[in-house]
Amino acid sequence: MTSSRRTFIKQVGAVSLLAALPQDFAQASDLKYALTRKTPESQGVSSTGIRNFLVAIKESGLEWHSFMLVRHGNVVAEGWWKPFDAHYKHTLYSLSKSFTSTAIGFLVDEGKITVDDKVISFFPEDLPVSVSDNLKAMKIKHLLTMNTGHDVDTMPKLREMINQSWVKTFLEQPVLHEPSTHFLYNTGATYMLGAIVHKVTGQNLEKYLAPRLFEPLGIEGYDWETSPQGLNTAGFGLRVKTEDIAKFGQFYLQKGKWNGKQLLPESWIEEATKKQTSSNKGDSDWSQGYGYQFWRCKPGFYRGDGAFGQFCMVMPEQDAVLVMTSESWDLQKTMNVAYQTLLPAMSNTALAENADELDSLKNDIKILSLATPKGASTSSLANQYMNKVFQAETNSYGIKDLSFYFDKDYCLLKLTSSKGVDKIKFGWQNWLVNDSPARNLFQVPNRTHMPSKIAGTAVWINDNTLQLNEKFVEAIHGDKLSCVFDGNKVTIAFINSVSENTKNSPEKRDNLVGVIRI
Length: 518
Hints:
It is built from 15 helices and 21 strands. The protein is an alpha+beta fold. It folds into three domains: 15-88 and 242-258 and 295-366, Beta-Lactamase (2-Layer Sandwich), CATH 3.30.450; 89-240, DD-peptidase/beta-lactamase superfamily (Beta-lactamase); 382-516, Calycin beta-barrel core domain (Lipocalin), CATH 2.40.128. Mean pLDDT is 93; it is low at 1-31. The protein has a nine-stranded mixed β-barrel. The protein has a six-stranded antiparallel sheet with strand order 2-1-11-10-9-8, with helices on both faces.
């Protein structure tokens, strides 16, 4: 992520309580740990305002995956754009940083570290031969506030130096500025926070946070990417569900209290979320100041955020939390949509129930879906290529052969590789989530690929061009396969969603060519 991109909760303890709630607002799979659901008006939020938010999303041209609005500790609206779903984890990118900051808060509260401790004191065995004065001066607080003194983000260098630890590589990087004098968004600095947690406790972030944060909040089924040394990547890579993000935000809104128990001191919450340093120049939401791995927002509240639009906005004045997940190419526009529609929808007092608008809101949410490419669901050539086995020419994917099956409801792509047989279904101009395991055999180079269900949609662009779109619903991104049939040959070209929508990440994968086996 760059400068151009980032009360008391009641848990449902009885089925009878849930039965009294609107069913469209009770989608969590584990009722024991679900946040309570209430109608928007009962919590002082206008259903019309939320509907305006959904209209603005559609008109924005940007891609949302989910949202959840919590007011006074209750979920008042939530939605997932098909094929995404309440039960799927979602990649947080740099929103992970706020969880890492929380781990440091617990360590400080336990008296095991202070934010004024020097970074080099934890890693005497990894220090460079010559330790600069600026490196000697670097404190944990400088890691937290992105004021380490580096001139460039250190994470690319950490990944590049594959034969030594990320900690050692970080400590080798030039520290050109005196710490605290130069703000630079530096994901390598967040990794060092996780490394300090490991150094002090012997546990990675996942294990350390489990009894302190994840278990009390009922956050389950999460995972977190790791470095080659087995430490969580800290600055990115955590995957949790939308409701888990909302719980995390509500935990901060409640100033570290959960179910009546103070898990993290209120003083730490205030310290972590206030403006600790000036951030970037300009008038964007990245120029409002930075705390301990939290950004300040233009309306006066704060947020954790991640690349492509993963937001956890905590609004103390409104007593609200807004979660948004997306694959957005304009993060400021994403936030502006929320500011301009949801903030005016909130009142200081309960509103009169509006049954008609609430029903309309429920219907609006029910039909949320990512757009699918338009074309035809059949081709005059379909029978000619039905179940024909195409022997693959030599390729980098390990594909030996492939075939297509065309049903009235779906297209099936069958791939045989050195890893076995994979079958992926694609609904005709409709998202179809593959429940059976399917590997992503066409991985984008230099990008981490976490296991994910694949949702697919298919369309014939013309008689000989079949377009297959994939969405990795437990991650963020997608892939487009353009299959061109010509005589006894098929050529598949690839374009991933990041390359398709940005100029700085060109598609580098080769075409896959197959010839019908005689």
